[in-house]
Amino acid sequence: MIANKCLDIEVTVVDLDADRIKAWHTGHLPIYEPGLPEVLHPARDGLPGVRKPNLFFATDIQGAVAKADLIFLCVPTPTKLTGVGSGRAADMSYVEAAARMIAEVAKDDKIVVEKSTVPCRTAEDIRKVLAAVGRPGVNFDILSNPEFLAEGTAIKDLLEPDRVLIGSLKTRRGLQAAATLADVYGRWVPHERIITMNLWSVEMAKLAANALLAQRISSINSLSAVCEATGADIDEVSYACGLDSRIGSRMLKCSVGFGGSCYKKDVLSLVYIAETHNLPEVAAYWRGVVDINEDQKERFIKRIVKCLFSTLTNKKVAILGYAYKKDTGDTRESAAISIVNRLVRENAELRIYDPKVEETQVWQSLEETNDKTAFDVIKSRVTVCRTSYEACKDADAVVIATEWDEFSNKTSNRTPTPTPQPPILDSSNNFQIPPRKRSAGLVIRNPDTGNVVTFDKISPHAGPPGKPQSPFNGFSTTSQKLYEGSDSGNYTTSRSSRSSIVDTSTGSPVTNTNLTSPLTDASHDPMHGPSVTYCSDEGATTLSDEVGTSTLGSPGAYRPDIANFAKQAISIPSNTHTAKQSNPKITVSGELDKIEKLKKQGEAREKMDWSLVAQVMRRPMFVFDGRNIVDAEKLRQLGFWVEGIGKPGVGGLT
């Protein structure tokens, strides 16, 4: 991202792996991340007449280090497998080796930046190595600047970070080094989001953030076990809890267990830190986060065995998804690995399909987690398939291990709220008025797609005159929404009503606005579906005009997730959106649109037709949904028995 945004800065990425470096020069990049090619290609290849290449990939590590002013340490810190702290402590051998090499090569002053997640006070160890090995008179300033990225949304996270943390020593040189790095980020990140603080606090903040996220997942997963025992539905429970503003809805989606390169490793590192500082209760607390995660996978596997009549011998099981989460090809600590290893021990025959994980990567991950004898058995019982249908053919059961969109049969990811329907403007242009009077929202439904756009709290009287705010702020993408009861106010059934629309992001009314029915407006194009026009005293403004311009990072910032929803729901003609940011040096022009477009292209794989799957599976047909992404009732109607996480089984054996 630095190379993309800072045309005057030359960035060189170095690695010992020559094959990986070679792949970075091709169109087949060594990692999958939505939006990555869009950011990489202009910097790597340049744009004729616009910019020269300033992003390079090389294996000459020493040469690149010698020329650099800023050096980012992006080396792995895996969990130690042997010796003191094995199974908990972080293996710092790569960090030490990198520091030694930098010290040996450097001939002038360098700023060394920790990007890896490391134990607190690692920078002190790096400083000792640099001071001991480095040339006399060469100064090294050490900063901590961890990434807070999620795979699958990493490019967006880099474009619009929640925060950029820079830790330094509180010395003159330390503060100057921090300011230098802050200036680089300031090319595209609002300055209020760039935070400098104590070096040790930043190191700890990264470790703590990952531990807290893992804790939240284990918390909801532990509740899913209680739901399975009591008959409650974990999706409904998590939705209800998420409505509490103190809790929020993020990271409350239960699953077969978290994976990836960070969570387990960093929680175990925190456990070891607590142990070494004689804090056994703290260590036990965080160890419980990992224990719950492992137990979640084990309970899921036992449920599969039990439902398949307590034996899997020679039964065929399709594993849909192998990456640890969707929108990535990363398999590190993926729950699918544990599922495959355990089911093979039950003598099952497995067929694996994942849209982004290479077959070689599947075999590598299984080989790393088994001895030679066990791996030979796995190779005889596991097949990697090219399509989901190939994996499901003649299968006794389907296990969904990754939440790829193509596996889902849901039309909405939001759990519907059991509340009365607001008035619906249907294709006949008539309001369907609920029997009770209440302050409700007007819902406009596209009759072709069935999608709904909700305008909150439309009252029968206009407020004081004023220009309408951006109509996007008032959108809610839920199919049903809580509405406050009211004994006052009447609904109007005319085509154009004088109304007050409340902006849900601020609570302020969008006043003096005529809402024109999109199904009767003269500007409606029947070939492209309805459009929505807002009419104010200053003239009509269409949604496609209003949603495009905002201040990046401001409360009213352009929201591509909502924008894409609305475009689909009411068929707004696509146009170029430009987001200007507070830093005048950089203009982000349509970048989030590009990322969303590329992401959609990556997700454009045709969804599985579960009715076709039902035709090729053996009876009885079982689906074990480890991500709760399918509509169990719809599958039941096709003859499936569905077992989800934190839910009672649904279906009938046919």
Structural class: alpha/beta
The largest pleated sheet is described as: 7 strands, mixed
**What do the pLDDT scores average to?**
78
* Proportion of residues in β-strands: 15-25%
**CATH T-level topology of the largest domain:** Rossmann fold
Please name the CATH architecture of the largest domain: 3-Layer(aba) Sandwich
Question: N- to C-terminal separation?
Answer: 54 Å
Continuous helix count: 21
The neighbouring-strand order within the major sheet is: 10-9-8-11-23-24-25
CATH top level of the largest domain is: Alpha Beta
Q: Could you name the ranges where pLDDT drops below 50 across 5 or more consecutive residues?
A: 413-592, 598-603
Quaternary structure of the protein: single chain
Supply the CATH superfamily name of the largest domain: NAD(P)-binding Rossmann-like Domain
Principal-axes geometry comes out as globular
Number of strands: 25
Taking all Cα atoms into account, the compactness measure Rg is 28 Å
Helical proportion?
25-40%
Summed up, the domain count is 3
Structure description:
- The protein has 654 residues and is of the alpha/beta class.
- It has three domains: 2-201, Rossmann fold (3-Layer(aba) Sandwich); 308-409 and 611-654, NAD(P)-binding Rossmann-like Domain (Rossmann fold); 424-602, no CATH class.
- Strands 10-9-8-11-23-24-25 form a seven-stranded mixed beta sheet.
- Helix 8 (172-185) links the parallel strand 6 (164-168) and strand 7.
- Helix 12 (280-307) packs across helix 13.
- The radius of gyration is 28 Å and the shape is globular.
- The two termini are 54 Å apart.
